[in-house]
Design brief:
Elements lengths: L2 E6 L4 H12 L3 E7 L13 H10 L7 H4 L5 E17 L2 E9 L5 E6 L1 E9 L2 E9 L4 E10 L13
Antiparallel strand pairs: 1-6, 2-3, 2-8, 3-4, 4-5, 6-7, 7-8
Length: about 160
């Protein structure tokens, strides 16, 4: 399946966050953080340059690429519903607050100081959103099931 990132121009961040929230409120997410802003391979969940380095520098007796490819990201939360995505700006510094909740009614807020915002797509379906932060880390919020918003019928239980 075709995985791709769409980098959002800075002037469109607020509009993109609002549209993303309106289209995907209530959708289930997995949120992870990758240190150092490494470019994560969308299919394997590992830094793509680490895979190519492992392949090009591996001696012939080295273990296979599959055994060397350990995910570099850490899961922050899993199977939580998107409740809110708030964009604010103070003295020219943008900040996003991602609010998610579980089926028990508790909410978790995640503050992001973005340098870049990218939408993740899988074919013609939305797969999630990625934030490259000022500290170099990347936050990825991926849907449990990538889908085109128009392909879904009805509201999430919390939206009724």
């Amino acid at each position: 399946m075709d995985h791709r990132l769409e980098r959002i121009p800075r002037p469109r961040w607020q509009e993109t966050c609002e549209r993303f929230l309106n289209r995907h409120r209530g959708w289930l997410l997995h949120i992870s953080e990758t240190p150092g802003g490494e470019d994560v391979d969308l299919e394997a969940g590992v830094p793509s340059h680490a895979q190519s380095r492992a392949q090009s520098h591996a001696p012939s007796h080295a273990p296979s690429k599959r055994s060397q490819s350990k995910p570099q990201s850490r899961e922050l939360v899993s199977d939580v519903a998107l409740h809110d995505l708030v964009f604010t700006e103070s003295d020219g510094a943008p900040e996003l607050t991602l609010v998610v909740g579980d089926s028990g009614g508790s909410e978790t807020s995640l503050s992001v100081q973005p340098l870049a915002i990218m939408l993740e797509r899988q074919g013609d379906a939305d797969a999630g959103i990625r934030f490259e932060q000022r500290d170099g880390n990347q936050i990825r919020a991926l849907f449990r099931v990538p889908a085109s918003p128009g392909a879904l019928d009805g509201l999430a239980a919390g939206e009724r």
